[in-house]
Write a structure and sequence with these properties.
- By secondary structure, the chain is mostly helical.
- Helices cover 83% and strands 0% of the residues.
- The chain is globular and about 65 Å long.
- It starts with a helix and ends in an 8-residue tail after the last helix.
- The model has no long low-confidence stretch (mean pLDDT 86).
Length: 170
């Protein structure tokens, strides 16, 4: 197995572990590790647009821990769009931009179930990107990311449904 694919597999493991966390903070901390490994993976594959998306994602995740600012999210989306359009070699490269926009809005504006649904949507866009570029570690990563996100959603919904409902006395 070459070094690029190994980095992709490590990124997959980090993403799976992150997505199984119920705490939004622990999820985001795990995603930071995942994003660094994913960036290394794409750098070794020679995909500059994906690398730039990962660098921006690293900033996005880190900032989203400290702020929910719509202005900050908009700035990251503009930077993502400019970099992706400047570096894109094919229309499929634009999928990393679309994923970046979805993930930025999700990380800055949502929490709980909505956050995880946004992460799922972004992951599906990355999955299509990785299938096209034959990133085997990335394909595994995003497939597992989708499955672990669905599992995390299921556990959150199940816990919410198990909580006793408050009755309103009239």
């Amino acid at each position: 197995m070459d070094l690029a694919q190994m980095a992709g597999w490590l990124a997959a493991a980090a993403a799976i572990i992150a997505m199984l966390k119920k705490s939004d903070l622990r999820l985001k901390q795990g995603l930071i590790i995942h994003t660094v490994l994913y960036g290394v993976h794409f750098a070794l594959l020679g995909l500059p647009t994906a690398v730039v998306s990962c660098v921006i994602a690293l900033a996005r995740i880190t900032l989203s821990i400290y702020t929910r600012s719509l202005l900050c999210a908009a700035a990251l989306i503009i930077i993502s769009a400019a970099m992706a359009l400047a570096l894109s070699r094919s229309t499929v490269d634009i999928l990393s931009l679309a994923a970046s926009v979805v993930l930025t809005l999700s990380l800055f504006r949502f929490d709980g179930i909505k956050l995880r649904l946004g992460l799922l949507a972004g992951s599906i866009l990355w999955l299509i990107h990785n299938v096209y570029f034959q990133s085997w570690g990335g394909i595994c990563l995003e497939t597992c990311f989708c499955l672990s996100t669905l599992w995390g959603l299921w556990t959150i919904v199940r816990e919410q449904n198990e909580k006793p409902k408050k009755e309103i006395c009239l």
